[in-house]
Amino acid sequence: MLVLGIETSCDETAASVVERCPSSGMIRELSSVVASQESIHAPWGGVVPEAASRAHAERWLGVVRLALSRAGATLDSIDGIAVATQPGLIGSLLVGVSAAKGLAWALGKPLIGVDHVVAHLVAAEIGAEPTPLPAIGLVASGGHSSLLRLGAGGSIRLVGHTVDDAAGEAFDKAAAILGLPHPGGPHLEELAERGDPRALTFSVPHVQDGLGYSFSGYKTALLYAVRGAPARRDARGVAESAPPEPLTEQRRADLAASFQHAVVHALVRGIRKAVEREREDLGAAGAVEPTRAIVIGGGVCANRLLRERVESLGAHLGLPVRMPPPRYCTDNAAMIAAAGAHRLARGERDDLSLSAHSVSALVRGHRGRPLQGSHP
Ligand code: KG4
Ligand code: ZN
């Protein structure tokens, strides 16, 4: 089965063709084209939504054509068109969704909507064995930090998510504070290699029984370490503030290493809590199937320290860890095509009323309670 995937949820215009083996369920990438908009947004220090949608509108057709030709495929030879429908920038998502609908209608082929966050976890299966289910998944990217439970048969439940910044967003803001270019995650990781992670300690927020995340406090602590904390008045009304340590090259590296260590520690702690919670529920009810794997995805999962720490956690908990290679961690369309191929294989498809949503259906309506749903 050949599936064309289209991804336009943020600042990458991407298209890919994957093949799914009907017997093993294995996914093979035939092509994956990613047209980055980094140079368009870099001068602004972040993604400009209107500029992103315009660039998607100008580029999507060329990107799809290239993906088809690199795969040696044609529009006639594909079996379905998958597209990211949520979450993301609404104007950007609409470009991809409209394009996929137009193609599906004109060709009379199945249309399959895909949740971008779920697709980040399916990325671990491209060119690899399918992930054993049920699994606990962490998606950590520029827009999302979510813990999910993936059940057999495509069921999915949100276990916890960030109450403020996403992990990647926190990396990007911390990098900006340290004077590094956007997107800052990879630059901060490089700087952190020369630093001491014990230089600055961060207080750890306790969110959603340890299953949720909050990263904005880490960013503020870093800002104060660089620029100095705001003055506080003592009992006599005298303003006191300690001046920050001079920002030498070594101090910058130490702060980068400390920040990276704190964020990675929080992300890994959330996975451990989620697995432990599932095990407690299993002990109590006996009806839940045991967790059989840990899977991670999203741009932040390209981070080497995070990958090492998740591997160690898996070894400690006796669970296999599935993680995509770095090129499938950041946004791409192969993961959209792969998630779409799984849905199509289950006999699922969408009609032309398919719409785009800025917030994932898994998070919409979530009020700190686990929310049931299904792929995508
Ligand atoms: O998954 P992605 O490409 O886009 C979203 O869906 O948001 O993730 C991009 C994010 C950016 O915030 C970027 O700084 C971060 O992933 N990132 C990293 C690394 N590589 C990318 N963060 C930490 N370490 C890295 N090596
Ligand atoms: Zn993403």
Written description of the protein model:
The protein is an alpha/beta fold and about 375 residues long. The chain is built from 11 helices and 13 strands. It has helices at about 40, 50-70, 90-105, 115-120, 165-175, 185-190, 215-225, 250-285, 305-315, 325-330, 335-345; strands at about 1-5, 10-20, 25-35, 80-85, 110-115, 135-140, 145-150, 155-160, 230-235, 240, 295, 320, 370-375. A 6-stranded mixed β-sheet has the order 12-11-6-7-8-13, sandwiched between helices. A hairpin with a 4-residue loop joins strand 6 and strand 7 (about 145-150). Helix 2 (about 50-70) packs parallel to helix 3 (about 90-105). Zinc ion binds next to helix 4.
Please outline the helices and strands.
Layout: E1 2-7, E2 12-20, E3 27-36, H1 38-41, H2 49-71, E4 80-86, H3 90-107, E5 111-115, H4 116-122, E6 135-140, E7 145-150, E8 155-161, H5 167-177, H6 185-192, H7 216-227, E9 232-233, E10 239-240, H8 249-285, E11 293-297, H9 304-317, E12 321-322, H10 326-329, H11 334-345, E13 371-374
Parallel strand pairs: 1-4, 4-5, 6-11, 11-12
Antiparallel strand pairs: 1-2, 2-3, 6-7, 7-8, 8-13, 9-10
The chain binds 5'-O-[(R)-(carboxyoxy)(hydroxy)phosphoryl]adenosine and zinc ion.
5'-O-[(R)-(carboxyoxy)(hydroxy)phosphoryl]adenosine (KG4) binds at residues 10, 141-143, 168, 171-172, 183-186, 189, 298-300, 302-303, 330-331.
